[in-house]
Design a protein that fits this description.
By secondary structure, this protein is of the alpha/beta class. The chain contains ten helices and 17 strands. It has two domains: 115 residues, Rossmann fold, CATH 3.40.50.720; 215 residues, Dihydrodipicolinate Reductase, domain 2. The protein starts with 6 loop residues before the first strand and ends with a strand.
Length: 382
């Protein structure tokens, strides 16, 4: 079975669902079905030209016209939808977090292991070519032993007290918000590059707006709509920003700053690695460029598409140097990797670069350790 022969069904039509659809279509994958709330599904299906539309996700996962289920719904549904899709015999690509707690994620891991289908968690930041190149550099020892790492993931879309989205509600998004929503992307990326897992955490979480104003009506993530004129105050229970200390299984220490109230930062991921030979750093606002630091010589920069990036990255970049590949392209490349494994019967060539159910389970375990660290004001093992 070739990639274009596989058919996808997407659950969720908010911010991220259409991102999945666009990336799949760029790969030549037919999106045959869509599912969401009744008031949304038909309208989005009509706009995107998808004929099979369901207002119950169970109908989508049972559809004979769907081979791969993409789960892009609010967080609290991820667990039940993942299990339903696996039980229906479908391959799955699930947005993070995998589920709301490790009890749920452990069930998914067991089901995924027992299934012959491919299960992936959508940690898309892995698929920036610069991130893949950093991983190769670490594997080859070009940077030496990684002494420590630092970085940040900063946004400002919740800067005002009237900024609102379902992610702010613990019952919808989980007890962690900024860390679980974007901080886990940084932690997964660092672990992917280092080839090591987070083993212990020390957390300091903060809330800027103790009380926010909730619009009378739901608002999509990153929505530009300012039509709401009526608000109701509510008490905020999830963090706006966080500072984390991390210990990895290979001995590397790291520090991470996360914020969704960082004015002027729209979606800025920064990761710096300090090795015994040289350092390297990357920023998502300049996605095609890697920077290198030297003790005794001049610092260097390398652009994607030039010899400095090497041949390993080539399968995950479609455009020549100077033609920037960014956020939407990471989804396309992740799906290319996942669908390539599916088409090859689960025995795709090369490394399995996409995150698995086990990876998703570990990220939720990290979040639970972060919550315990915040409560105890101490280091906590994951």
């Amino acid at each position: 079975m070739q990639i274009p022969e596989l058919r996808a069904g997407v659950i969720g039509t908010g911010f991220i669902g259409p991102v999945h659809i666009e990336a799949l279509r760029r790969l030549g994958v037919q999106v045959t079905a869509l599912s969401d709330l009744p008031e949304r599904a038909a309208a989005v299906g009509g706009r995107l030209g998808i004929a099979e539309v369901h207002d119950d996700y169970r109908a989508l996962v049972r559809s004979p016209n769907v081979d791969v289920v993409h789960i892009a719904s609010p967080n609290r549904f991820h667990g039940e939808m993942s299990l339903a899709a696996l039980h229906a015999g479908k391959h799955v690509v699930c947005e993070k977090p995998l589920a709301m707690n490790t009890r749920e994620t452990a069930r998914i891991v067991r089901s995924a292991r027992a299934s012959p289908r491919i299960f992936a968690v959508n940690y898309n930041v892995r698929f920036y070519p610069a991130v893949l190149q950093l991983r190769r550099l670490v594997q080859r020892g070009d940077l030496g032993d990684i002494l420590h790492a630092q970085g940040s993931y900063l946004q400002d879309w919740l800067f005002k007290d009237t900024d609102y989205n379902w992610r702010l509600l613990p019952q919808e998004g989980g007890r962690l918000r900024a860390v679980a929503d974007i901080g886990t992307h940084w932690m997964d990326t660092a672990a992917f590059i280092l080839g090591a897992s987070v083993q212990a955490v020390f957390a300091d979480l903060g809330i800027h707006h103790r009380t926010r104003q909730r619009p009378l009506g739901e608002v999509e993530t990153f929505s530009r709509t300012k039509a709401a004129l009526s608000y109701a105050p509510y008490r905020v229970k999830t963090e706006d920003y966080a500072h984390l200390l991390l210990r990895f299984s290979n001995g590397t220490r790291a520090s991470l700053a996360v914020s969704q109230v960082a004015a002027g930062r729209k979606n800025c991921i920064r990761l710096e690695l300090y090795g015994s030979k040289k350092s390297a750093w990357w920023c998502s606002e300049e996605p095609d460029v890697l920077h290198f630091g030297n003790r005794d010589g001049a610092n260097e920069s390398a652009m994607r598409g030039t010899p400095a990036f090497g041949p390993d990255v080539a399968p995950y970049a479609d455009y020549p140097a100077g033609h920037v590949e960014g956020f939407p392209d990471t989804f396309k490349m992740l799906f290319r990797s996942v669908y390539g494994f599916i088409a090859a019967g689960g025995n795709g060539k090369g490394e399995r670069l996409f995150a698995t159910a086990q990876d998703g389970h570990h990220e939720v375990a990290i979040c639970e350790a972060i919550l315990r660290s915040q409560q105890t004001r101490a280091w906590v093992q994951v």
